[in-house]
TrEMBL record:
Pfam families: DUF4278
Protein's recorded name: DUF4278 domain-containing protein
Domain of life of the source: Bacteria
Length: 136
């Protein structure tokens, strides 16, 4: 059975399950219905190589050595990419400085626009906000 999920097409082959009718469970609209039980539930051995936001990972148990070796390689890639991402983050102080700088620039822009419009009430409010940022 061909299926598509979020634009990715894949082939799905459901595992056949033999069902045996059980006891009568009751009647619904005058017709008896039965409980059905699976004779034996096969365990689906799945192994998948997946990628989430650019990071590759594996789920399931590999069926042969080659799949296991591929999984180890993917794990090494994952570790390397995680290391690169963690090193890309700036320190907390740098982020704080950047954030405050952006807030000040935004406030300056809003203050200039208020002066262009001649809105004295808004100018007063923005100047008060600037004082709070300066002392905060």
């Amino acid at each position: 059975m061909k299926l598509t999920y979020r634009g990715v097409a894949y082939e799905y082959t459901p595992i056949p399950v033999k069902m045996t009718p059980g006891k009568v469970g009751g009647k619904y609209r005058g017709i008896a219905w039965r409980h059905h039980q699976a004779e034996s539930v096969p365990i689906h051995q799945s192994f998948a190589r997946l990628k989430y936001r650019g990071v590759a990972y594996c789920i399931g148990e590999p069926q042969n050595i080659q799949e296991w070796e591929d999984a180890v390689t993917l794990q090494e890639r994952y570790t390397a990419s995680t290391y690169k991402v963690n090193n890309a983050f700036k320190s907390r102080d740098e982020l704080t400085k950047t954030h405050l700088s952006n807030i000040r620039k935004n406030l300056e822009r809003r203050l200039q626009l208020a002066k262009q419009r001649g809105d004295t009430n808004l100018i007063y409010l923005l100047e008060e906000e600037a004082k709070q940022i300066a002392f905060g």
